[in-house]
Amino acid sequence: MDTEAVLRGGEIPGDWMDLIEAIHREKGIALILGASDTGKSTLAHLLIAQLCRMGNVVALVDGDIGQSVLGLPTTIGLALFDSAPKPLDNIQLIASYFVGSITPRGHMLEVLVGIKRIADRASQLDPGIIVIDTTGFVTGETAWELKFQKIDLLKPVHLIGLQRRREIEGLLKPHQFRPDMAIHRLKIPDKIRMKSPEQRRSNRSRKFAAYFQEVKLYEKSLDGIKVVSPFKVRYRGKGLKGVLIGLNDEANFNLGLGILENLDVHRGTISFVAPELDLTKIRLIRIGSIEVDLFGNDKTHHH
To answer: What pTM was computed for the model?
Structure first.
């Protein structure tokens, strides 16, 4: 769906327009839920554009770690808007949190902690409105538990459900009696296009490839740096070479991503390739759970 065309042509669906008015009246956190390809990112973009035009300052927390709009896949990003953005993919990030995976499956703790840390960072900026986009992971008991805990943790003023039929009713209903939370059930416009797993993979590859287009090989002493969970992930005897790593500051916010070359715990050194960055700020290196090459290919075959 071409968000720009919708904005230009004034084709915003009626229930989406009602939502914009409701958030403008009752500010706070607006959390968007929906399966893949239900228009969550499109809705987030429209909310930012329209609410900024109504005089609001809006923060966007992009929690869709598989199909990130802000920043890179495997990360949760934060940006602030006081005017309607054009595309969202070249926005300067205020903060980023490295989850290390493109799916919440097996990474629920990291996803919950990351989205809460970034939402808290957004609150410190006092934007008035915080829009939070989430992954399309909505089916099954694990997904239900993750979304339940996420809603409980973030306490949105507006809980927004995008659904074709009633596929996420089970996620919305447990919160229907909360006095300080409005639930908005939205229809999905016909113009929302379904993406194949190949398209999703291609989107991720393109983002990673662009990021790793110009890299340097760094070798760094681990003096003053803590490597977090280096042996948590099993790689069938391959070792950790090629694994995506998060290069984080002392508060565990992400400064950049790298691809691991070698971790030598005996010598106390780590080597990795990454774009140009200031190594002096790195205090934590988080080992991710996907392998990525310089062309952006995720060699762990997630969907």
So the answer is: 0.92
